[in-house]
Known about the structure:
The protein is α+β, with helices and mostly antiparallel strands. It is built from 5 helices and 7 strands, in the order ααβαββαβββαβ.
Amino acid sequence: MNMLGLRLLLVTVLLGGALSGCSLLSPFTTCEGTASAVAKLNELPALALRPAGAVPIDEEAEAQAYCTEDSGDAGLTARRLYAYDGSRTEVQEYYARAAPAAGWHPVHSLTTQPEAGFSVFCFESDRHPSVTLAFESPEELREVYGVDPGPEPAGPGSRIWFQLFAEAATDGSRMGC
Length: 177
């Protein structure tokens, strides 16, 4: 093959890879070999915090931890899903006390009112991945997480659902809010 043919082949391969969104050597991480980092994230002390009366939605939801490959890159998540017969304010007040005592501090005020119908509050630690508290609707739990949140209460505002989750890089290293 002559030099011109070699150059055309190289340009074709590089241009084809660039236009398809792929590269010859992926800079992204995968879930391969992440089992110990997933297990360590799942044991994060802040994830064990929950107000008295908060019950796991189901046994599987209580200790869910996994690695996902999304958009070509991987990340770790550990999550807890709970039902609570009380108010958002009670849950927020609990985490305002319990999270700092365990070494996680709120990034923003926990008195912030929900925007667009949902609330998300993040707690950071100097040494550990951040932990997020999010309030969910029964519809979101069914559609997004495939979890049955159980019967809805007869009276308005007497039951809420929330999740507590942490995310980390594939090596288990800290991720902030």
